[in-house]
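FORM 12-B: Structure-to-Sequence Request
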């Protein structure tokens, strides 16, 4: 018996219609053969690819050529390879997108407060008196409305005269006031009133992996150029040479270490938080780049503004921070892993206890391990130097030491560093 042909079979043809209709009756319906699907034109695909390539190649060229004529793009440059107008900020708390609008607001806010320092050319002829951005020795910022400005750079020479160029391109001769030997901040004043001032950030709130902005007015009359940098260590030690692990109690021994390479033209730039507050001054050191926090100057700022002789409290000792070193002989460390071991390499640093210092008069001896000041533990987050420098002259402090395995409390009065 001949089998039925399925009405859905591709073998169905018109000549089968009568036979199939007899077999299937009214249920019979012919099904058209499927049409061949048209493929996407290869030429259309090639055209799309070509347009994409042209956009990728010509877009940056057009942007660089004509971008300065676009207000949105000409307002700010963000240097962070590759150049970008927004970036992700990833910290210990959350991740957020800092947009170009946010950065522009910061630039607008800080622009009047950023100052460029130059070696003065006041005595040169008119042409030689021009200040070229590449010859700027440092950036600084306006501290007070009546013209106090701050900077920091290692090759400062008190014999030189310095000029300060403001964001509007105006240049002023500066009057050198003083420097702080504990931080190397330099204080100047210019003859200008009603100046925009900054807000000082709390460096203690800086966390590892936070971001900051380094600002320099590379081109007077324009908004500052900003570079975003990442914090590698908010309280890092400056150790680049042998014997750098021996620290003076009279200078700060830790700063904010950066994990970002800083181009030379950004060195000595002002560091701001993402809220537009001044964090400090960036500096290049032998082992990388650091930010020296400005809030360390708060305790003596009144003396600076009153133009008094700047005097820091001092203890007069040299020490090894046990929390930052390994391999110290147990007879020296007394089995402790934190604290300040009073010790010095005499041929490099002199004595561990300065003769006639408050430390000597208070009863400290070499080999003591200072474990706390006024009950505040000395450790990786609170060094002996910071504990002393955060006090004031004539403060009576309780210095707790471990000597020959026994704990002692010594009462010591801090004195001025130049006494």
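FORM 12-B RESPONSE
SEQUENCE OUT:
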């Amino acid at each position: 018996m001949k089998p039925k042909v399925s009405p859905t079979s591709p073998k169905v043809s018109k000549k089968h219609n009568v036979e199939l209709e007899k077999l299937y009756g009214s249920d019979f319906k012919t099904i058209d053969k499927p049409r061949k699907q048209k493929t996407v034109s290869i030429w259309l695909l090639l055209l799309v690819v070509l347009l994409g390539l042209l956009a990728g190649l010509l877009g940056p060229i057009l942007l660089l050529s004509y971008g300065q004529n676009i207000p949105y793009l000409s307002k700010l440059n963000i240097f962070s390879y590759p150049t970008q107008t927004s970036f992700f900020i990833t910290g210990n708390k959350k991740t957020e997108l800092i947009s170009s609008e946010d950065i522009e607001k910061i630039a607008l806010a800080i622009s009047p407060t950023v100052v460029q320092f130059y070696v003065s050319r006041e005595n040169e002829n008119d042409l030689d008196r021009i200040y070229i951005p590449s010859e700027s020795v440092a950036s600084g910022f306006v501290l007070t409305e009546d013209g106090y400005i701050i900077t920091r750079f290692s090759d400062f020479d008190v014999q030189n005269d310095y000029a300060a160029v403001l964001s509007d391109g105006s240049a002023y001769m500066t009057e050198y006031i003083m420097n702080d030997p504990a931080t190397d901040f330099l204080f100047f004043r210019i003859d200008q009133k009603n100046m925009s001032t900054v807000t000082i950030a709390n460096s203690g709130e800086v966390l590892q992996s936070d971001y900051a902005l380094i600002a320099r007015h590379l081109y007077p009359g324009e908004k500052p150029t900003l570079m975003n940098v990442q914090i590698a260590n908010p309280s890092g030690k400056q150790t680049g040479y042998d014997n750098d692990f021996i620290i003076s109690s009279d200078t700060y021994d830790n700063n904010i270490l950066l994990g970002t390479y800083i181009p030379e033209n950004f060195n000595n730039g002002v560091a701001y938080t993402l809220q537009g507050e001044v964090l400090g001054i960036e500096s290049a050191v032998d082992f990388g780049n650091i930010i020296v926090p400005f809030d360390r100057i708060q305790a003596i700022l009144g003396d600076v503004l009153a133009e008094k002789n700047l005097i820091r409290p001092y203890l007069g000792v040299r020490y090894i921070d046990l929390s930052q070193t390994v391999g110290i002989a147990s007879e020296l460390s007394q089995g402790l892993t934190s604290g300040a071991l009073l010790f010095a390499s005499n041929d490099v640093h002199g004595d561990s206890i300065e003769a006639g210092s408050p430390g000597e008069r208070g009863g400290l001896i070499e080999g003591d391990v200072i474990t706390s000041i006024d009950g505040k533990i000395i450790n990786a987050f609170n060094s002996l130097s910071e504990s002393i420098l955060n006090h004031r002259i004539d403060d009576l402090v309780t210095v707790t030491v471990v000597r020959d395995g026994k704990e002692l409390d010594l009462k010591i009065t801090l004195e001025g560093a130049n006494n």
